[in-house]
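Box 3.1 A note on notation
Throughout this textbook, protein chains are presented in two layers. The first layer is the amino acid sequence; the second is a token string describing backbone geometry. Keep the layers aligned when reading.
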Amino acid sequence: MNQETVLSLGYLEAELVKVWVILQRPAVQIQILGVFLSILIALGISKWSWIQLKRKFPQLRRIDVSSKKLSWKHYGFALVRYLLTPTLCLLTVSLPVFILKQLDWSYGYLVDGAKILVDFWFYNLFLLLLYTLFPVRYVKHYRNILFAPLFFLFIVTRILNWFLDLRELSAASLISLFGKPLELGAIFVVITGLYFLIVTTFLLERLLIVTLPEKIFPEPKAKQAISLIFRYFVIGIGIVIIFGYVGVNPTAFAAITGGLSVGIGFGLKEVISNFISGLWLLFERSLKIGDIILFEGEWSEVTSLGIRATKVKVIKNNFELIIPNQTFFTQKVSTLTGTDPLIRSLLQVGTSYDCNPQKVQQLLVQVAQQHPQVLNEPVPEAFFVGFGESSLDFELRFWLDDPLLSFPVTSELACLVWQTFAENGIEIPYPQRDLHIRSDSNILGSD
């Protein structure tokens, strides 16, 4: 342990002792207790008031779970829901401030606490405005993962600043990395910066999908591919900026890269290959979310395109497969939705030899045209394909605009064909065999 590390540990210990001494003062304890009691009383009153409102107006239960924007007719109730608590907190904190002021005691920490409650009031007002502009459940989601953590860090920073010099604290270093002291501020920036970078990137990605013009990107699949490229680009640039801001030595990275080059070449070659393949899939758009592909003999739907692997859902049994991206460049993969989502399906049927082939073809086309999901262009067609052992064989060919509809539509058409043939006296035969028994006098003769 070097001298600088020892000094840093001593500094931290001295700061903690200083904070402990401050907290031991009766005047400080009284103020902190006053703040906590005021907040607890305000929370209790706010909770009770909201319960009473929901009992009187049951429709208010939908405010917290609605998937739509907050309507203006509920805006008054929303003001009570989100601003009552911080308002009551401010009022209840004012009471101990008034009492301590009359007693000529110290009340500086109470005033600082009141300032934080003012910030909390405006934070809730900001969320309330978001609820009126965007669906409630989306705002609640990003409140939990973005806005609330940001506000929490802001409050913690304000409180720590009462007792500590945060600039000196952030400059303290506990360990050395590559011969350079690693400061607490740098560690904090890296951890929080990476978290908020990822969360903010996903928020911007969602906004990008919503704001992309429909005329230029009419297909949702194209928007998703562009948003995925945007995500990894922003995260990559953000990581470079964060580590550059904290002063990570590029020479150290070069040394690590050189030392791990052999391991990367052998142990991580599959990872790198999948990474490059994923980028090519995104840029070429040869595979998109929602595509139907034939993989390992099963038709599957692409559900997610990742930078390393692609997730597909097997249509037959709803299994989910995770396929490395390089598979799509090293194996032959069939797709039903690559450039044209139309698919031609077949229905084979046999009739007795007593029927009129032309009439059977006409009825088959008629049945296909009456089905709402069969396309009229290209037109359905029926063909007489051959003479079977016990039937005349026909084939109905029709087109669909969704490959996933092939099996159910074929099943429905088969039922309709059976019903139509029965109504028109057309028999669908089944295989028959004639059994002839021969009597041989030589075999049945007497001894």
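Residues 1-7 have pLDDT under 50 and may be disordered. The chain has 15 helices and ten strands.
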